[in-house]
Amino acid sequence: MGADDRGRWRPVRYTEPPRWRHIVLTFLVLVIALAPVPTVVEDLQRRTRGVVFGVPPRWPHTDVVPYAVNADLVPLNETELARALDLLVQAGFGWVRLRFPWFAIETAPGQFTWEPWDRVVQEVTARGLQIIALVDGTPPWYRPPGEEDNPVVPPTDLSAFARFAARLAARYATAIDYYQVWDQPNVTPFWGNRQVDPAAYVDMLREVGGAIREADETAYILSAGLAPTTLQEPYHMSDVAYLRAMYQAGARGTFDILGAKAYDLEGDDPWQREYREDRLGIARLVLLREVMERFDDGDTPVWVVGWGRHATPPGWTGRPSIWGTVSEAEQARYVYEVFRRKRLEWPWLGVLTWDQFYPQVPLDDPLWGFALLRPDWQPRPVYFAFRDLATGPPLIGIGRYGPTSWIWQNPDPELRHALLVEGTYIALVAGELVAVEASLDGQERSALLDPGREHVLGNQLALQPHTLVLRFDPPGVTTLVVGRNRPLGPYMALGVLALVALVALARLTSLAFWPPTEPIVLPGLIAVLTAFYIVAPTLPLSLFTLALIAAIFWFRPRWALVAVMGVLPFVAVTKVLGRWQFSLVETYILLAAIGWAGRWGVQAIVAASASSRALLTHRLRRALEEMWSLLRPREPLDVAALALLGVAAVAAASARYQEVAWREYRWVVLEPVMFYWMMRVLWREEVQRQMTRARARLRTWLQRYTFTTHMDADVVQVAVPMIHGLLWGMVGAVTLGAALLVWQPMGAYAEGVWRLRGVYGSPNNMALVLGRGVAYALALALFLRSTSSISRLATWPKPIPGMSVRRGYALLGGVLLLGLVATFSRGALLLGVPVLVMILAWQAPRSERRYLLLLLAALLVIQVPFWMTDRFRSLVTGAGTLALRVDLWRASVRMVRDHWWWGVGPDNFLYYFREAYLPAPDYPEPNLSHPHNLILHFWLALGLPGLLWLIATLAAFIWTARRLTRFLPPESTSRALVIAALAALGYSLAHGLVDQSFLLPDLMVLFWFGAAILASIHERVRTR
């Protein structure tokens, strides 16, 4: 009851608040809960990147004495050598890195001078020091022509170098166990005055390291210490990029320990956490470590063979330092901080080798700024820093310290071990039954350790040094485990935000599946979850987010394919899940496939629950018939998809580098074909929902009307959401690329222009994707008709709310076209777009061709200011990248002649090209992965059968499109979609003449998207 304006009581009807209000408020709560997540996650990732939390695994060669130094001891006389070794022992060093130059030992062919090195090795080992032997250098008779004066050029005879290394290892088998093969091969002149070659160094490492192991079974191989550099020139390659190329060339397993170098310049913070390839510093070790983990080599430890910070000695009058300089006191503090960071964060790091002990250089050489001693042999403050760290009770951090570790080597007279342990978790693991007496920060306890079980001495301790005293009976069989717990604060904050978001998400999901709001709410929900998945800091949180996305895909399978199309422009964004790395496109295709397989599995389980055998047989037969009706190939393009699986599989199986070939097969063949079949199945399921069996059997004059209207409804239900996802994803990619270009800038500056590239590695890759989006947007803007019969069954969704359908597509196409122009891709602007416009003009009515003429004129006007830049002038002069492209095509033709039947295999072009087909030794782009031409690429990747497949598939595509454009009436929305797919193909073929236009994951998905549209519409035409 309620009172009216006259005070009379009347019945009042209460209604539920509008559902839209609930949706908006719930969505706002979800956004507010997730808004702080990126900031929290970014800070957490920055603070925890490279850090090992929890109980650490065991990395071999990391529980050794971590204090080492580079020392040139051979030139010293007896007195100087004894003095030097006394100083090293007094400072607590455990290692000396000595160089064994081949050219200085083998003074003439077959004549070896070992005595100076024999003397040093004997004296060093007699003092209890261990040796890291650097093996490098080339005698004059093995140096290539023009490099006779360069002693560190690689030898022309690698087997001779291997024989020398084997002789060295056999001679010092009882004294030396660790050998580093070469040094700094990523910069000139240490790889000669020529381009660096990671694959060639891997060959050296494999052959020389194998020879050393054969000569000394107890030897361990260190890879070369890569010079820290940010350059990407052919003669100087970033150490991070070089290591990545080493692994791509098969470096895994060729070394036991990764050698690294790291130097901090003036002003660098040893605790800095900006992990970028363009920044030097000790934190660069984390980037190297991440490369190792990416290539599944995370069990291999890292040793630093050169590090330091320069400090000019007082009264310095020599040459200025090129590394910057600090005071000697700051240099000493720097040593303390680096070792503390190692103890707290990097258990995978073993030895840290200081750059110089007593350099054998002139007194004005700035290398004296790295030295531990002054020229008069007086120790500098940095020497005392090492002494403070290395003497006294062992100071250790997180890691596993086995029974033979250095921390157990010097017990007191009562066989007790006094340690300073810096960690929050301390435990013991015994190899047999052991009695232990322990004292942790003064709290004593005794225990009997069971073999193999972890006995915790302390957990959730403060992150500071703890005094630990241990006594074992029997000794020599116990491992000390030191760990570090994760910080709880940020994770608790994330947990609270996740809880609020989960409640809001549950509420929003219940509202989202109400049919009228599904097309609006679900895209936003998937976008929010995708962003959260990208920034999720931990594996459990990432998997939880994936589970939520998978649940949506399970109940709404068509939105899985919409999500795939939406993330296509972000294919370069990858997510690391444990040891594996997946792109968003790959992740969503796999989730969609799992959802389809899961639903069919549920149908099989339901069928198996039948009460009788006859009913079971009937249900299984019916389920199989339905599945076959959805899966069986009926169109030429269906056959083409299956044929590609076989052709590419044979090409991958015949490739030299199998790992990359099968990876490429998965990315650009298997998963895009899976997307094609899922789209075909989805369309067929929609057909079954739209047309009953009675309508399918109609043979009256109503058949054509029923067919046309229902087919257009299929288009609206299946294809249009995918197109909208693609176009809005591209708009997001253009917006992000423009923002990065303005604020960071993250574009690519080439030949006088800034080029938009977004998240892609190259602007051309972005142009290849945007061109297809322009084709779909402009075709739909031109060819959709408001008088379409679809209005009787379904309404074409507006791409931009509040704007007509055609104007919305025109605006989206204009934005994408501007982004395409901003890439300054000559293949797109001079080949792709003109062909696209010609196809549209060919199909457009005369009254609308003026729009296309205006479009071409606008494009020409926009480009006029840039025609005088080197980017476009090189087309006339024949210089710049155009000349390089011509040389590349000639080299690719030679490769085709040598491998004309099966090519070189998927993703194998790079390795063949830089090995034997470089146009010139100084060719500036030796790491190209494809020949920048559609025909050459298919021929070399999939062989002659692959090229024939391409021709046949394109013929089937064009034949199907041409048939449909003639059959479908002008007012049909399906015809507009067919023309859009045909225009996208035309753009792809034109741009493919000068670039890689198909064999990429995103481009193949886009091709099969268009093929699925044509095949599905043509199937409806044939079965009408």
Helix and strand topology:
Layout: E1 2-3, E2 9-10, H1 19-34, H2 37-48, E3 67-70, H3 78-90, E4 95-101, H4 102-105, E5 106-108, E6 111-112, H5 115-126, E7 130-136, H6 158-171, E8 178-181, H7 198-215, E9 220-222, E10 232-233, E11 236-237, H8 239-248, E12 258-263, H9 284-294, E13 302-308, H10 328-345, E14 349-354, H11 381-390, E15 395-396, E16 399-401, E17 416-422, E18 425-430, E19 434-440, E20 443-449, E21 454-459, E22 465-473, E23 478-483, H12 488-512, H13 518-535, H14 539-555, H15 557-567, E24 574-577, E25 580-583, H16 584-608, H17 613-631, H18 636-653, H19 658-690, H20 693-696, H21 702-743, E26 748-750, E27 753-755, H22 763-783, H23 805-822, H24 826-843, H25 849-863, H26 870-877, H27 880-898, H28 909-916, H29 934-967, H30 973-991, H31 1001-1022
Parallel strand pairs: 3-4, 3-14, 4-7, 7-8, 8-9, 12-13, 13-14, 15-17
Antiparallel strand pairs: 1-2, 5-6, 10-11, 16-23, 17-22, 18-21, 18-23, 19-20, 19-22, 24-25, 26-27
Could you characterize what this model shows?
- With 1024 residues, the chain is an alpha/beta fold.
- It is built from 31 helices and 27 strands.
